[in-house]
Amino acid sequence: MSDKRTIGMWLYSNGGGDAIGKKLMKKLRERNILTIDDINLRHATAKNKNIVHNGIKLNKLDLFFSYNAGEQTIYQTYLYQALNRMIPMINSYDSFQLTEDKFQTSFVLRNAGVRTADYRLFHRDEASKQLQKTLSKWKGMVYKPTNGWGGAGLSKIEDEEALQALMPSLNHSNTREVFVERFIKYDNSDFRVDIVDGQYVGCYGRKAGGNDWRTNVTSGGSVFMRECNDEVLKVAIAAAKACGTDIAGVDIIYDQEREEYVVLEVNGIPAFATPEQEKMGLDFNDKKIDLIVDLIDKKTKK
User: Fold this and answer.
1) How far apart are CA 254 and CA 115, in angstroms?
2) Alpha-carbon distance 142 to 156, whole Å?
3) Other Cβ atoms within 10 Å of 83 Cβ, number
4) Per-residue pLDDT tens for 239-270?
């Protein structure tokens, strides 16, 4: 009886993604797993009980590996949800959706015993009163859109003037919820820890640029070599498990006042090291590829 399996894949192509995809497909072929590449659900249609892309019935595949953060649309995630009811996904739709939402992630982590920044969520109609009340207790907070990435939309609020400057944009936005976190005093650097199937892949640091407090590279932060200590790794593995992620990039900072490590975010599609970062010494790509291949092999065993 043949053990031949077929999976679909949608992997980002920039930043060395093309080369990563080729390595993945080669290693999967060695295990008799065929990969149909570049399945962009934007171009898929649903026909009765099938979801079809270029004549291929995606719901007949053994697994779908979706790994493209920058080009997700509402339509794609809508089909992502439907497809995951039929076949295994990496990451699952539930964990993908969870890690896309900052409040839902923090709520799940806290209830799993994983430390996050203190947070508050309230309806927009209560924003003015609740934000003033919260600011008086915390003396500093960060407003965050519940979705979004790369540090976009974040506002640091340290006084009444900053709070009043934020209110017009909140009042004219479409969002109904307002999410804020207590501002944590830290050294303006973080740990990004990559986890695949509960196993450690690699770690690097990001440092905020200039007078900014955000470590995101898209906000001016920079990547540097950083070792992962046992405590940081324990927190990262616990966070990935709590969110149900097969693959996760966990962002962790050290709270200097409370003297503890805090999870800022769980990223469900953490990038591989770019060619430039590999030249710096970030050499975890091959290990990450091997662990993903093992994971796909395990999830598609017949």
Assistant:
1) 11
2) 5
3) 22
4) 999 999 999 999 999 999 999 999 999 999 99
Closest by Cα among 252, 271, 273, 272 to 263? 252
Whose tokens are 């919260």? That residue is: 134
Got the DSSP string for 2-17? ---EEEEEEE--TTTH
Q: Which CATH class is domain 99-114+185-268?
A: alpha beta
Among 235, 251, 232, 138, smallest CA distance to 185 is for 138
What was the pLDDT predicted at 182? 94
Average pLDDT over residues 78-92: 96
- The C-alpha atoms of residue 136 and residue 151 are separated, in whole angstroms, by 25
CATH code of 5-91, in short, is 3.40.50.20
Residues of the chain with CATH 3.40.50.20: 5-91
d(Cα 236, Cα 203) in Å, to the nearest integer?
Answer: 10
pTM of the model: 0.92
Reported as a single tens digit per residue, the pLDDT across 163-207 is 888 888 787 777 888 999 999 999 999 999 999 999 999 999 999
Instruction: Sort strands 199-207 and 33-36 into parallel, antiparallel or unpaired.
Output: unpaired
Q: Which CATH fold would you assign to the domain 119-182?
A: Dna Ligase; domain 1 (3.30.1490)
Kindly report the backbone phi and psi dihedral angles of residue 245, in degrees, each rounded to the nearest multiple of 5, phi listed first.
-85, 130
